[in-house]
Amino acid sequence: MNQPNAPLSPLPLPLSRPDGDVRRRVVSGAQLRTHGFTPSRVAERCRPGGGWQLLLPGVYLLQPGPATGEERLHAALLYAGRPVLPAQRHDSAPYGEAMVTGLAALALHGFAAAPPLTSIELIDVLVPRTRRLRSAGFARLVRGHSMPPAEEAGGVPVAPASRALADAVAELDDAALIGRLLTEAVRGGHCEPAALVRELNDARLLDRPHVVSAVDELLAEGRALAEGRLYGLVHDGGLPDPLWNVDLRLPGGPRLGRVDAYWPEQAVAVELDTRAPRHDEDAQWSRYARKREHLERLGITVVHLTPRKLRESPEQQATVVRTALMAAADREPAAYVVVLPR
Q: Which residues lie within the region annotated Disordered (predicted)?
């Protein structure tokens, strides 16, 4: 029979070294039972002087003193991800489908604008909407209609940056902080503006005035970055200089639309897709497709680039544009169009 102060096997608990595995310091009641600790013995160890403490319902820290940020993270995940039955837990997935989201996830993603873990009062944990568990203590459950693929940061599963940002914004009313977080997400390459706006839209946050103003700045920031990368692509790729940001029109006719770069001699246009998701996204995409088809019927080649492609594979995108320019010699001459500066 185990003695109250006997170490558990195979997990030597409690640990005395502060650099030990946090999973040996923060454990669930089910894990303790598998090592022979009855509820009464666990309760005895959690009394003053016993050396253990209850962090969350059914989750214990096997050492005295305040819990660290890392220990609170693991405790929140253990609480939120615990299975209905102890036998359903597997060592390979101790947290089930639960993942850290919100400000805590942003801190783990490395956001400088996010507060440090030690100062975050509530740790948001994303769980499937079918989970019946309630928020408790410092673990705040966020129920998701759809669960994104989890990423790993700081040794724990975290929501992707765009989803974590949407969950953080849902709980924030500090417009300045929201703006800093959104700007850092784009400038730091954590996520594309369109993906982030889509998450905010799905979370029904775009009707909040302080969110709308921050999103407007975000989209302007995202377009400016994409345009800068397009300038760099042309320069670094040794491509001829185009006409930048121009409107195309038929002589004496209607406006054909705006393009980000245009090579009139080759009749090649580049368009950056920085569209933000909207309630009328289908109609918006239809207008975009009609515009592209109209230009191509006039003999103008339209190269479609996304901010993500420009960021992740600029050399490959330069090759795409170069190929379109070289292919112009083999095409029928394009219709004459008027090029106007914007």
A: 1-20
